Amino acid sequence: MTIREAAAALGAELVQDHFDDIPLTGAYSSDLLSDVLAHAEGGNVLITVQAHRNTIAVACVKKLPAVIICNNQTIPPDTLEAAGNKGVALLRTNKNQADVSGILYKFFHL
């Protein structure tokens, strides 16, 4: 599943759409960025409500090509700018993390 396919499956908005549409290797859901640093795997999409620019920094360190912001959180301009500068896809959905995780689970595990 590519990043754009994930966005379509979720009905998510592509807030920052200047990125390489590569296949995702899985998903990781967490709001604790230290947890993401410790456990997310490169190629995963991050599912979170953390919409600040540090989320993008963590995505870059862990080589996560995309971040899904849940619960229709407002995304600050500096987060959007950081994602664009680093080529990290930024998606937003009104769904919660459990629903997003459940939808994506079937693409990676079934």
Strand order of the largest sheet: 1-5-4-3-2
In N-to-C order, the SSE pattern is: HEEHEHEHEH
Report the oligomer. Answer: single chain
* Structure classification: alpha/beta
The stretches of 5 or more residues where confidence is low (pLDDT under 50) are: none
Number of helices: 5
- Beta-strand percentage? 15-25%
The counted number of beta strands is 5
Radius of gyration: 12 Å
User: Which sheet architecture does the biggest sheet show?
Assistant: 5 strands, mixed
Q: What is the average of the pLDDT values?
A: 97
Shape label: globular
Distance between the termini: 13 Å
Q: What percentage of residues falls in helices of 4 or more residues?
A: 40-55%
Notes on the protein architecture:
The chain is built from 5 helices and 5 strands, in the order H-E-E-H-E-H-E-H-E-H. The model has no long low-confidence stretch (mean pLDDT 97). Strand 4 (66-69), helix 4 (77-86) and strand 5 (89-92) form a beta-alpha-beta unit. It starts with a helix and ends with a helix. It has helices at 3-10, 33-39, 53-61, 77-86, 97-109; strands spanning 13-16, 26-29, 44-48, 66-69, 89-92. The protein is of the alpha/beta class and 110 residues long. The longest helix is centred in the C-terminal third of the chain and has 13 residues, at 97-109. It has a 5-stranded mixed β-sheet, with helices on both faces.
What does this entry show, briefly?
This protein is of the alpha/beta class.
